[in-house]
């Protein structure tokens, strides 16, 4: 059982109801993360609006998921690992070896950019952005730009909200995501 209230549309604060209704229409269900975030209509708005911006940043859709899955695994958020694994597998058709490497925190064979992106994401999280010159150079040496650096940081900011909210709440995984839990 979650430690924070997981709102339904009917129990949510008035300011969160329209956003929750839109999620229901777009997904066919309301992920429990949305129900948790609805406790703070501003947190829900932050999640959705930054999520939209993150989805149109300078990284590819696959690279965005590399950041999200890496952060979720690194932060111990099974809910987000499951949700982003589902997106990566079904919507983006991410190759299984890449997805499994991300989920298992092992080297991504055959894709230097994704490997560099995953490593840099973890370095940013661990060092609170205070990466070394060598770490920044290594990231940029595979073709990433200054804009990409900032877009990775934006992705981490989004992931941090979700990962920490789920970890504090101990959010239960929706049945629609259970097949994408780690080690499944």
Portion of residues within helices: 55-70%
Task: Report the CATH superfamily of the domain at 61-169.
Answer: AhpD-like
C-alpha end-to-end distance: 22 Å
Using only CA atoms, what is the Rg?
A: 16 Å
> What is the overall shape?
globular
Query: Which structural class best describes the helix and strand composition?
Result: mainly alpha
Oligomer: single chain
How many E strands? Answer: 0
Q: At the first level of CATH, what is the class of the domain at 61-169?
A: Mainly Alpha
Low-pLDDT ranges: none
Roughly what fraction of the amino acids lie in strands? Answer: under 5%
Main sheet summary: none
What is the residue-averaged pLDDT? Answer: 97
Total number of helices: 9
Order of helices and strands: HHHHHHHHH
What is the second-level CATH architecture of the domain at 61-169?
Up-down Bundle
CATH fold-level name of the domain at 61-169: AhpD-like
What keywords describe this structure?
AhpD-like; 0% strand; 184 residues
Describe the structure in your own words.
The protein is mainly α. The protein has a domain at 61-169: AhpD-like. It is 64% helix and 0% strand. The protein is built from nine helices and no strands. The protein has helices spanning 14-27, 32-37, 41-54, 61-74, 78-91, 96-104, 112-126, 133-140, 146-169. The mean pLDDT is 97.
């Amino acid at each position: 059982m979650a430690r924070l209230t997981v709102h339904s549309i009917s129990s949510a604060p008035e300011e969160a109801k329209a956003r929750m209704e839109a999620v229901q229409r777009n997904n066919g269900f309301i992920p429990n993360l949305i129900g948790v975030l609805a406790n703070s209509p501003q947190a829900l708005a932050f999640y959705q609006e930054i999520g939209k911006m993150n989805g149109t940043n300078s990284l590819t859709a696959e690279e965005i998921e590399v950041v999200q899955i890496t952060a979720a695994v690194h932060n111990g958020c099974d809910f987000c690992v499951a949700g982003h694994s589902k997106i990566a597998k079904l919507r983006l058709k991410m190759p299984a070896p890449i997805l499994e490497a991300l989920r298992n925190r092992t080297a991504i064979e055959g894709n230097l950019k994704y490997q560099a992106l995953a490593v840099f994401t973890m370095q940013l999280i661990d060092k609170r952005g205070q990466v070394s010159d060598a770490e920044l150079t290594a990231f940029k040496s595979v073709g990433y730009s200054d804009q990409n650096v900032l877009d990775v940081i934006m992705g981490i900011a989004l992931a941090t909200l979700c990962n920490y909210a789920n970890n504090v709440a101990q959010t239960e995984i929706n049945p629609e995501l259970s097949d994408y839990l780690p080690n499944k």
